[in-house]
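Q: Two folds, back to back.
A: First:
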Amino acid sequence: MVPAPHPTEDTPLKAIAFILLGMVFITINDSLIKFLGHNYPLHELVFIRSFIGIIICLLILQFEGGWRELKTSTPGLHLLRGLLVVVSNMMFFSALSVLPLANAVASFFVAPLLITLFSVVFLKEQVGIFRLSAIIVGFIGVLIMIKSGSAVVGHEPVASWVYALPLGAAVAYAGMQVMTRKLGVYTKASALALYIQGLFLVVSIGFFVFAGDGQYAQGVEHKSLVFLLRAWVWPLPGDWVLFLLLGFSSGVVGYALSAAYKLGNAATVSSYEYTALPMAFLVGWLVFSESIEWPVLIGAGLIAGAGIVVFYRERRRRSPVAPRRALRRG
């Protein structure tokens, strides 16, 4: 028996609380991925974080209705949503191995603007001239960071094309969160998170089977590809605490983001994701000794400012982003 549809929820305070919680733990997650990525391949990190994260989501599921909540009449849509978040994470984490944390996160934060844009196409939201202009300004902010040539890692400038990684991640992430809003009509947040964690496990195991011995990393020089194709190694004793924290943060992020976009208006919720920007800047400076150049600050300011404009216009209009009718079954 497939769970009955629930009315589209709109409880902004709960949604904001969840998205803020998610941003704190996503900053922890990104920092740990960047730190551990010096010694471990990406697919190994993804496997361990998802293995621990899925245990956390299973525990939460028991408080939200139990195993019956995993039943769905739209498995194809859940699979597509999961593939989008896998692509998003793989591209963004690859960017972390090359770009400073602040640059990668700031570039990724065109995602909330894209969520608003995708809402027009997929959720039939109407966007006026102010919000459309804000989206354009946000993309100008990205171009400023890309054209500045300010990203330097190990005293070497980073090629502009590398920014395609966080931007591609943002496109996939925006599509995933729009789907979260629609699929949340039928599905609990814990189930939404479980589907994603499960797909992460499958993908990481696939990487291990075909590339876990590091054979495809031979002769590869670019850091992002090395990070993706490096051989699996058994974690050092001192790193297990970090892996446990990584897995815990993955579980919290998966549930918190699913809950936030299920409970609240997509354009409103996405605007609060910008709280991760100052956190990323601070961690990049304190933990990784990364300097923050003026073009990055200017670009990030334009992106964040554009997102805030979208939020206030959305709040003023008070127009629903998701359709109030339930999804068709079958």
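A: Second:
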Amino acid sequence: MIERVRELLEQVAGGDLAPAAALEQLRHFPLEDVGLARIDHHRSLRQGQPEILLASHKTVDQVVLIAERMAVAHGSFLATRTTADQAEALCARFPGARWNELGRTVWLAGPEPVAELGRIAIVTAGTSDLPVAEEAAVVAESMGASVARVADVGVAGLHRLLAARAEFGQSDVIIVVAGMEGALPSVVAGLVSQPVIAVPTSVGYGASFGGLAALLAMLNSCAQGVTVVNIDNGFGAATAAIRILGSSRPGGR
């Protein structure tokens, strides 16, 4: 956001942008009330991360309206938990937007590349965990991380994890996504020195209780340094990882 304001001021100073046009963009800061939502345009200034559009339980028109206002203010937006109808409408309105059908995200990248913060590995126990993992991957990429995906290395075949260790061992933060008994984060955390963020998923049979069994197992991990987010919360895991990366830079974010 700071870069965006600086860019506007430089354009005005250089005569490339009329003051009225700059004012039109700046008038939405820090808060824009669009009736059905109050969009927090200054969140990136306070937290280092922009506001994200959660599309679930919103109509198609509501999602498009909020995305339009975000695009005007920032040149970009990220919508999570989108339905196919919402994604189709967003991609029609913004031809440059990218729909990740598996992760249920729609991302319109800004005109300038995001400064790279570091590398995040996203490790999944099984293929059924991929939707949550892909949500985390897109969120992390949109906020400046490079992402290494390591899929289907659950503890039912531990040799798969050990064979893939080099793929995630060089990352700065590791996100581990698992359902069933949720054992994978403990195993990973016992092999690496990086921060490990565990994401329980609602994948599993009846006694998994919609991910509660995995959540409790991860909270009771015997491995040191495991942080746990809520069930199916790939978004929360990615934003936590971004904060860790940002705090490790000189001066923070």
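Q: And?
A: The chain has a mean pLDDT of 87.
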